[in-house]
Amino acid sequence: MMNDKNKLSRLLPWYANGTLVGKERAAIDNCLLKSVKMKRDSKDIDIIRSIVKNEPIHYPSASLKDRIIERIDKGQTVRKYKLKPADFFGSLIIWVSLFIILWLVFQPGVTIQWYLPIDSKSETINIYRKTISSHNFKIIDQISTVNVPVQIILNDPVLIPGQNYIYRIDAYDTSGDLVYQNLVSASTSKIIVNQIILILSSISLTLAIYILVKLYTKCGIIYMKTNGLIKNN
Amino acid sequence: MSRSLQTDKRDKGLLNRIADGSIEAFNLFYEIYYLHLYNYILRLVKDPFISEEILQETFISVWLGAKKFKNRSLVKTWVFRIAHNKSVSWLRKKRFLLTSFEDNSEKTYRAEEEKGTEYNAENKIFEDAIYRAVNKLSPKHRAVIELSFKYGFSYKEIAHIMNCPVGTVKSRMSYAIKYLKQDLNNRN
Prior knowledge:
The complex is a heterodimer.
Chain A: H1 2-9, H2 12-16, H3 22-34, H4 36-53, H5 64-73, H6 85-106, E1 110-115, E2 124-131, E3 138-144, E4 151-156, E5 164-172, E6 178-187, H7 192-226
Antiparallel strand pairs in A: 1-4, 2-3, 2-5, 5-6
Chain B: H1 3-19, H2 23-45, H3 48-65, H4 75-94, H5 99-116, H6 121-136, H7 139-150, H8 155-162, H9 166-187
C-alpha cells in the first residue's frame, strides 16, 4: 500500500501538467481524496510548476533566423547522405560493368607467334588449345590463307591466370593434307597483384563515377535554382 | 482530434515541405519553435551566446534531418530531442573549458535573467528562490523539471527526448522535487 502510494506520488508532476491519463490518473484522483500527504505534495508541485511555467522568457537575437537561412542558402549545410538500395544496386551495376571492361582490356592472355616454312604450301591453318590436364584439343581459330603467311600471331585473351596451356598449329594444303604441325606451351602468370589492382581500380572508378553523377546533379539543381529555371521555394 | 495531434499534423506537414527544400515552411517552423527551444537550451547551458549557437545548429539539423523524420514521436518531441542532445553534448565539452569562462557565462545569464524579471516584490522573493533552486539543479534534473512543467511533456516523451528509461525520468523528477522543497524549507 505504502509502495503504491510512493509510486503514485512519483507521478504527481505529470498529473499536474495534465499528461497523465487512464488508470494512473484515476488512481491519483482516488488517492488525493484519501491521503492528506498526497494532497500536500500535489499542492507543492502545483506551486513549483506554476512558477517554472511562468519563468521569464528570453529572446535570441533578431538576426538569428537570417543567419540560419543564410547558411542554408549558401549551401553550408551538407545533408548527410544515407545509402539507399537504389544507390547500392546502381553502383553494383557500374562496378560489374567496369570490372568486365577492365578484365577484358587487362586480362592475363598470351600472344604466340609461329614462323611457317616457306615451302609448306598451306591453305588452311587450324589453331587448337588445351590445358595441361585435359586430353582433347579444342579449335580456337581457323585461318584461310591465299598467300601463305610466314608469320602467324595469335592473341588469346580469355584465359585463367596461373594456368598452363598447350597450343597446336596444324597447316593443311589445298588437298587437305597436313603439311605442318607444331606444339607450343604457354602459361599465364599468377597475377594476384594485378587482379587486386584491377578490382580496386574498378571500385575506385565506380566511386568516382558515382560522386561525379551526384555532384553534377546537385550543381545542376543549384544552377537551375539560381537561374530561376526551377522554383526555389 | 486532440489539439496536440492537430498541432503535430501541421508540424508534420511543415516537415514534409522542409524535406522538399521549402524555405517558406522552414520559416514557419522556426517561428513556431524558436522561442521554446531557445529558452529550453538557455536553461540547460546558461549562456545566451552558446544557446544561440546551439539553437542555430538545432534548426540546421531540422533542415537536414526533415527527410529522416519517422513518425515514431511527435514533431515537438523530436525537435526538443535534437536541442537536448546538442545541449548535453556542449555541456560535456564545457567540462574541458576553463572555469573562469564558466563563471562568466553564468554571471551574464543571471544578470540577464534578473533584468527580465518584473514581478511584484511580494512574490518576487519566493519565485526568485525557486528559480535559484532550479538553477542549482544539475542539467539532467533541470531538464526534467523544464520539460515537464514548462513545456508539458509526458514522462514517456521526456524519456524519448532525454534518451533514457522512463524509470530514470521519474527518479530524476522525484529527486528534483525533493531538492527544490528542501531548498525552500531551508530558506524559510
